[in-house]
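If you are new to this repository, start here. Below is one unmodified record pulled from the training split, so you can see the exact layout before writing a loader.
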Amino acid sequence: IAVFDDKANTSFRDFKEFKGSIFEQMENALSYLRLCNRTKATIKGLERVEKTDYPEEALREALINALVHRDYGFSGSIIINVNDNKIEFISIGGLLPGLSVDDIRMGISQQRNKNLAEMFHRLHLIENYGTGIRKIYSLYENCSSQPVIDVTPNAFRITLPNMNEADEPEPEKNHVITSQMQSVLGYFSSHDRITDEEVQSLLGVKKTRAFEILQKMRYMGLIDVVGRGTGKYYLPGSRNSKH
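And here is the target side for that same chain:
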């Protein structure tokens, strides 16, 4: 695990190497990642709200995925790069023949190390095969930046964005009302509310892009969010009437 001072991962801040059994490496590496997982506190009304940079369960799932699915025919190490914006988990061994990144995100799993996966399953370290990646994405469901999977013939990388950095509001000077935002605001002229799915349909964009637009509109005071999960919807915000 290498911790860097810059986004390009060129200036070392700290470095740790882990040896021993797979379980020793897993426990010690996860303990070190917890130290790297800073907590940010914000005040909402009278309540102090604390949020870690990364969901701990996402760190755990990404680490276990690297250990269980790597190609042990190679002697190279699993590499974990940490900086203030993201954490990268890089393991040796690309996807098995016939699988794509979309397959992985859907939960398709082909075991490279069946005995090892079965051992992790029996020890309740993994629940069911193929659920780890889906769980990671579900933990980032309401984050403006999403995990990214990159695959080469001989390597697999999953990048977890820093949630506190991703959801940090942009400087006011960058708060320009775009044509897509205007479309959402115009929707309120004939509707009382709008949902995530309706925004996707209205703008012709996918879920992640729609969320990014709505997140910026919330920070700008153009809309307010009500509820959570499947029942969530948006209302005109305090600044809506000015535009």
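Two things worth knowing about this chain: The mean pLDDT is 88. DSSP finds nine helices and ten strands in the chain.
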